[in-house]
């Protein structure tokens, strides 16, 4: 396939810059402990300094992969598919989710909401970032809000973001892994004082799994 044609197919979402795909246990948020197949899509310009998958940022380093091939692999492993990144909404997600839905799979997305919502989703985990705030539709449709806490000011940001989501959205505070010993007690105290929030931990890292 010629380079220009590849770029057109990527723009349409028929090819996606696939960083990795793997079957594991969801470690975070509402569905923690659930077996799921993860599709990690490359490309992100949000630029969180503490990001633990910075190798996902440059989409050009990840091979443009046909959606059909991604779906064929995913369907072998699990009924629950988690699309993550990078920032998956950088790309048109409709071809991927249409193909996954044709297999009757449950589809979740983990997103900063920094780009318009595309695709059909059974569960939307919104993890907003200060550098590039979410689009309104993502706030409106999010099933869970997961705010990463790196310092005390992030609790103020969390409340600002919680005011924007729908009334049914579940609210989580999650310690950033590199400072977890410092901020976890802060989060615990905050949740006890503000019980509309729940604590989310990266349990997959404690279990030493992907």
TrEMBL record:
Transmembrane segments: none annotated. Pathway: Purine metabolism; 7-cyano-7-deazaguanine biosynthesis. Pfam families: Radical_SAM (PF04055). Residues 31-210 form the Radical SAM core domain. This is 7-carboxy-7-deazaguanine synthase. GO terms for molecular function: 4 iron, 4 sulfur cluster binding; carbon-nitrogen lyase activity; magnesium ion binding; S-adenosyl-L-methionine binding. Substrate binds at residues 25-27, 40, 84, 210. Belongs to the radical SAM superfamily. 7-carboxy-7-deazaguanine synthase family. Homodimer. Keywords: 4Fe-4S, Iron, Iron-sulfur, Lyase, Magnesium, Metal-binding, Queuosine biosynthesis, S-adenosyl-L-methionine. The keyword Endoplasmic reticulum does not apply. PROSITE patterns: RADICAL_SAM. It catalyses: 6-carboxy-5,6,7,8-tetrahydropterin + H(+) = 7-carboxy-7-carbaguanine + NH4(+). It comes from the Bacteria. S-adenosyl-L-methionine binds at residues 50-52, 86, 127-129. PANTHER family: 7-CARBOXY-7-DEAZAGUANINE SYNTHASE. One of its GO terms (biological process) is tRNA queuosine(34) biosynthetic process. Its EC number is 4.3.99.3. Binds 1 S-adenosyl-L-methionine per subunit. Binds 1 [4Fe-4S] cluster. The cluster is coordinated with 3 cysteines and an exchangeable S-adenosyl-L-methionine. Its cofactor is S-adenosyl-L-methionine; Mg(2+); [4Fe-4S] cluster. [4Fe-4S] cluster binds at residues 44, 48, 51. Catalyzes the complex heterocyclic radical-mediated conversion of 6-carboxy-5,6,7,8-tetrahydropterin (CPH4) to 7-carboxy-7-deazaguanine (CDG), a step common to the biosynthetic pathways of all 7-deazapurine-containing compounds.
């Amino acid at each position: 396939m010629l380079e220009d044609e590849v770029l057109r197919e990527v723009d349409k979402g028929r090819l996606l810059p696939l960083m990795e795909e793997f079957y594991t246990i969801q470690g975070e948020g509402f569905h923690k402990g659930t077996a799921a197949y993860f599709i990690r899509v490359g490309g992100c310009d949000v630029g969180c300094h503490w990001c633990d998958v910075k190798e996902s940022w440059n989409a050009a380093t990840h091979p443009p992969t046909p959606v059909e091939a991604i779906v064929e692999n995913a369907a072998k492993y699990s009924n629950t598919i988690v699309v993550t990144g990078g920032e998956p909404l950088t790309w048109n997600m409709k071809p991927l989710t249409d193909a996954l839905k044709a297999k009757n799979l449950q589809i979740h997305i983990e997103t900063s909401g920094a780009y318009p919502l595309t695709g059909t989703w059974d569960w939307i985990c919104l993890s907003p970032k200060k550098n590039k705030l979410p689009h309104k539709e993502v706030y409106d449709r999010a099933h869970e809000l997961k705010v990463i806490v790196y310092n005390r000011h992030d609790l103020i940001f969390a409340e600002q973001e919680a005011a924007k989501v729908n009334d049914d959205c579940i609210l989580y505070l999650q310690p950033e892994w590199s400072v977890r010993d410092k901020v976890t007690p802060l989060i615990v105290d905050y949740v006890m004082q503000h019980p509309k929030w729940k604590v989310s931990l990266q349990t997959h890292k404690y279990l030493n799994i992907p």
